[in-house]
Specification:
The chain is mainly alpha-helical. It is 70% helix and 6% strand. Residues 482-496 have low confidence and may be disordered.
């Protein structure tokens, strides 16, 4: 027997150690005896009974220790691939007799016999010694009960059992060294096939995407996250700042309208003494409204900083709010002088109308003139005073509108200036944050790329090692190539 080359033995030991153990066991084995088996629909029991009459009995307990193997199939159907797979170890290492039994009951047994022989030749090219025997255990059993010797011999010959028994007896007498070498060579081929399968499976494993699918998915996620971080932060910041401008403009308008409406109501309902203190109160209201606007800007800016996750020091008010000046003293106009004259005239006329009935009484004739003068003076004073109050209210309303407009302009200027300062701070901080996130993503990408390169180098080294081991198997197995024997049909009887 040829020894297993050292390099091939090392490859088998690494990839398929059980195969090397099987080679050693085959080298020490002493094949002997007959092992009988068959598919489920074959009448193995009847065949064994007829073979015992010829002195042939199964003595081997296992296929791997048998010198000869008999495999029975039914003549009704060809042999299947599963049965061939079960027979492969025996066909590649042992003399095998394929018994196609039941030729008396199935007229297509010749086609089945040829199909069995061609299937073995096609699917098991390393079969060492195979014979296909068409038989009929039923004919042989009937032949033993025939009284006429010539008829009995003819039937027995037609059954094929005698020829099968002779073949089995002859096969059992073959040299043990030849039988051992067959099993040894088959074990070597089986070990090489097992090692080859393990090598190919390992090569497929490292060349498949399963080993790096996690890394590739992580790399794609890092690339998408890096680009998305920059895009989302920039878009979110721009949208929130635009919304901040809109909200602040709307709030300033609301504060201005609220102040003007409240001021008009206060001016209309204030007494003359209250009108003197009202400008100071309205100035304080404008100041508080400006503080509310500034506080609203601060709250919104802080909310934006929280949403976009930017830690910055918020700038204070960029532009000081304009100081609201108190209204100037109302100057006397020609209209006021006209109202004095009109009031005096109206008062005198009214007084004369009132005291005219008294002039008819002699006792009150002296008092009529002074009374008329006093009443006229009072009436003129009241008309002038009422007209002055109306003018003062109108003057205060005008001042209120001008103050509200000035304050609104001041608020808008301060808010826009502050928003611009905040935007600059946000953009700078966001750029720094995006840069930090990008650097972190790039660092992770470098790590993933390094692991992918390591995996690629490992894959290349594994594939190179697999190629070397396969080459060692190919070189070593060439020394154990055994020419496969073509399965042959047993001689067909003339009456078959």
């Amino acid at each position: 027997m040829i020894d297993v080359p050292g390099d091939m033995g090392g490859v088998i030991r690494r990839w398929f150690p059980d195969g090397l153990d099987a080679v050693g066991a085959a080298r020490r084995a002493v094949p002997e005896g007959l092992f009988v088996t068959g598919i489920h629909d074959a009448d193995v029991t009847t065949l064994l009974e007829e073979l015992r009459h010829l002195g042939v009995t199964p003595t081997a307990a296992r296929v791997d220790s048998a010198a000869v193997v008999m495999f029975a199939v039914d003549a009704s159907s060809p042999i299947g691939r599963r049965a061939l797979a079960e027979m492969r170890p025996a066909l590649e290492s042992t003399t095998v007799a394929i018994v196609v039994d039941g030729i008396d009951a199935h007229r297509d047994w010749r086609e089945v016999t040829r199909s069995v022989a061609s299937s073995i030749a096609e699917h098991i090219p390393r079969a060492v010694d195979v014979e296909v025997w068409p038989t009929s255990a039923g004919i042989a059993r009937r032949a033993r009960h025939v009284a006429d010797a010539a008829a009995r011999d003819a039937l027995y010959e037609e059954s094929g059992i005698a020829a099968l028994g002779a073949f089995l007896a002859d096969a059992l007498q073959r040299p043990p060294g030849m039988l051992r070498e067959r099993k040894y060579n088959a074990a070597v081929h089986a070990a090489v096939a097992g090692a080859r399968r393990a090598i190919v499976d390992r090569a497929r494993e490292v060349t498949g995407t399963g080993a790096t699918v996690g890394l590739r998915a992580e790399r794609a996620d890092l690339l998408e996250r890096r680009d998305r971080e920059r895009r989302v932060r920039t878009t979110t910041l721009r949208n929130r700042l635009q919304m901040l401008r809109v909200d602040v403009t709307h709030e300033i308008g609301e504060e201005s309208r609220t102040f003007v409406a409240g001021a008009r109501e206060a001016i209309a309902s204030a007494t003359r003494s209250e009108l003197r203190h009202l400008p100071a109160d309205l100035s304080q209201q404008l100041t508080r409204a400006g503080e509310r606007v500034d506080g609203g800007v601060t709250e919104r800016v802080q909310a934006i900083a929280t949403d976009v996750e930017v830690d910055i020091e918020l700038p204070s008010t960029a532009t000081q709010l304009a100081r609201i000046e108190p209204p100037a003293r109302r100057r006397r106009t020609g209209e006021d002088k006209v109202m004095v004259v009109v009031g005096a005239s109206a008062g005198v006329g009214l007084a004369r109308i009132v005291v005219s009935p008294l002039s008819m009484l002699p006792a009150f004739e002296v008092a009529v003139v002074p009374a008329a003068l006093l009443l006229g003076a009072f009436s003129a004073w009241w008309v002038v005073r009422a007209r002055a109050s109306v003018a003062d209210r109108a003057h205060l309303r005008t001042w209120t509108s001008d103050a509200a407009a000035s304050a609104k302009s001041s608020w808008e200027q301060a808010a826009q200036a502050r928003i611009l300062a905040v935007e600059e701070a946000f953009v700078s901080a966001s750029t720094d944050s995006i840069g930090t996130a990008t650097l972190a993503a790039e660092s992770e990408l470098d790590r993933v790329e390094s692991e992918l390169r390591t995996a690629a180098d490992h894959r290349a080294s594994v594939l190179a090692a697999c190629d070397r081991d396969l080459a060692a198997l190919d070189r070593g197995v060439e020394r154990f190539v055994v020419a496969a024997q073509e399965p042959a049909l047993s001689e067909v009887r003339p009456n078959n």
